[in-house]
Amino acid sequence: MDFQAVVFYILSAILIFAGFRVVTAKNPVHAALYLVLAFFTASGHWLLLQAEFLAIALVLVYVGAVTVLFLFVVMMLDINVEKLRAGFWSHFPQAAIVALIMMAEIILVLSSPEAGLSKLQPAADAMAKISNVKVLGGQLYTTYLLPFEAAAVILLVAMVAAIGITQRQRKDSKAVDPGVQVRVRRDDRVRIVKMEAVKPEVATASESNNEQQA
Amino acid sequence: MELLQSLLGADAGLAVWTLLKILVIVGPMMGAVAYLTLAERKVIGYMQIRIGPNRVGPKGLLQPLADGVKLLMKEIILPTKSSKGLFLLAPVLSIMPALAAWAVIPFDEGLQVTNIDASLLYIMAITSMGVYGVIVAGWAGNSKYSFLGALRSSAQIVSYEIAMGFALVGVLMVSSSLNLVDIVKQQGVGIAGGSILSWNWLPLFPLFLVYLISGVAETNRAPFDVAEGESEIVAGFHVEYSGMAFAIFFLAEYANMILIAALTSIMFLGGWLSPFPASWGILGAGSILWLFAKMSVVLFLFLWFRATFPRYRYDQIMRLGWKVFIPVTLVWVLVLGVWMLSPLSLWK
User: Fold this and answer.
1) Are B131 and A64 an interchain contact pair (Cβ–Cβ within 8 Å)?
2) Which residues of B touch A (CB under 8 A)?
3) Where are the beta strands (DSSP E) in B163-303?
4) Which residues of A touch B116 (CB under 8 A)?
5) How many CB atoms lie under 10 A from the CB of residue B225?
């Protein structure tokens, strides 16, 4: 077994463990953190395949952004784990059947002669000369331009919709527009009054107080 | 390296050589972090017309050692209802990215731990992990205050990461490479003969500003230091930490400052290149000293900001990140694209 195979099996073991813990962890925050571990290990697998751009993008997008938002939501919600777990064993048979069917489907697709997985060449030789990113960019913007743009438009629509949902503002909100606030100049708030210096005399103390208030 | 490989065989020799390189970077880094804390206190002291620390050692030069020893001797208190494992993992999570990112930083031509092709992406991916230290620290302590602090500072980090990423898009457009060495080399050519005028900061000036300011916000430094906010809340996400665990968060913050300074120098200020044209002989030659000089200037800016500006209010931080910086970078990326395709392009 060469070094790469050893690394592959170690990473796979960690990945399976992490994936298992995502489902079984009692605490949702722990589950989300195991999900981070799973993403990270998966990106290690992609590095073994020399798909460095995809590996780094996986960490950047899923670990750096998506799971952070997951964690935010999970932490803020007060999730009652007991309630969620109540029907676990009664739902287990249906879930197991669905999982088995999905697994069978994937195995069928991958092992069918039409997929031709055994005929695939390792991409490494072709990729070694030119940068991974350039090849991907070239493919995305020439051969697959239309699907790529379609995906971008779908994402844009989803984003606009998500923002639109949050935009229903309360009418009685007293929030002030920060744009107005930062435009405030000193003269709007402070009035500087020049005064003559006053000698501290006991007799005129009340008088000078009056002056200052004026 | 050849010596090691002949002694230990090809693979083991390479591994030991890399370990040595890592040690050579991490050791001085920790020293720099320690003395950056002293420099900060001294600089801010002089800006406020006082002397700063001057008791421990000559001119206070041993102050960081005293601080370190003090923090090492303190007990690390584990809150009773905290999530113990995560509570101890959080400082590690926050210092790991700050150190791992140095693996691809080129100090001079050929002077780096490893030269990978997508090093810019690697840096962005690794530094984006830093936010987990903050979130996990805030959550694991099982305290409302640290949790709220974690929410505000992680929301801030995530927001400014986007502006930083877009600013870097401009850099990789003009250098048409994700490799930090290529990015530096590209700044050494141009009409101005590789001098200070041909570096990226001039044609990418808006992106340079956005990157620098986002860098300040990203490391939770003043005027964006709501995470610390000593006058409003008692510290932020690390309020439950004590002793060395607390110190590690600060080590990570200062290591991140140095990292941002190095990145700014490499992306926009020509890395190890000399500010003089290459034809000026020894003055025009690139050297690691130039990189250190540039990093020192950027670090001094960090300290200067802290002594000068009052703290931003939280909603104004968010407004600056989302409504000012991101539109500015988007527009400049567009302008840059048109500029590069026009006959006036500087990057042919």
Assistant:
1) yes
2) 83, 86, 116-118, 121-122, 124-126, 128-129, 131-132, 135-136, 139, 147, 151, 154-155, 158, 161, 177-178, 315-316, 319
3) none
4) 52
5) 20
Summarised one tens digit per residue, pLDDT across range A7-62 is 999 999 999 999 999 988 888 888 999 999 999 999 999 988 888 888 998 998 89
Q: Return d(Cα B97, Cα B240) in angstroms, integer.
A: 22
B320: left (phi over 0), alpha (psi -120 to 50) or beta: alpha
Partners of A27 on chain B (C-beta within 8 Å) are 83
Taking an 8 Å cut-off on Cβ atoms, the answer to whether B128 and A133 are in contact is: no
ipTM of the complex: 0.85
pLDDT in tens, B4-61: 767 777 777 888 888 898 999 999 999 999 999 999 999 999 999 999 898 888 888 9
Mean per-residue pLDDT, B77-89: 88
Q: Is there a contact between B128 and A64 if contact means CB atoms under 8 Å apart?
A: yes
Please judge whether A29 and B131 are an interchain contact, meaning their C-beta atoms are less than 8 angstroms apart: no
- Contact status, residue B258 vs residue B296, Cβ threshold 8 Å: no
Check the CA dihedral A36-A40-A45-A50 and report its sign. positive
DSSP conformational letter for B337: H
| Amino acid A123: pLDDT | 56
How confident is residue B110, by pLDDT bands cut at 50, 70 and 90?
confident
Q: Say which residues have a Cβ less than 8 Å from residue B180's Cβ, sequence separation at least 6.
A: B104, B105, B106, B119, B120, B123, B266, B271
Chain B contacts of A182, Cβ < 8 Å?
A: 316, 319
Which DSSP state fits B111?
B
SS3 for B205?
A: helix
* B129 CA: distance to closest CA in chain A (Å): 6
CA-nearest residue to A180 within chain B is B316
User: Is the dihedral angle over the CA atoms B7, B12, B13, B16 positive or is it negative?
Assistant: negative
Task: Verify whether the Cβ–Cβ distance B118 to A56 is below 8 Å.
Answer: yes
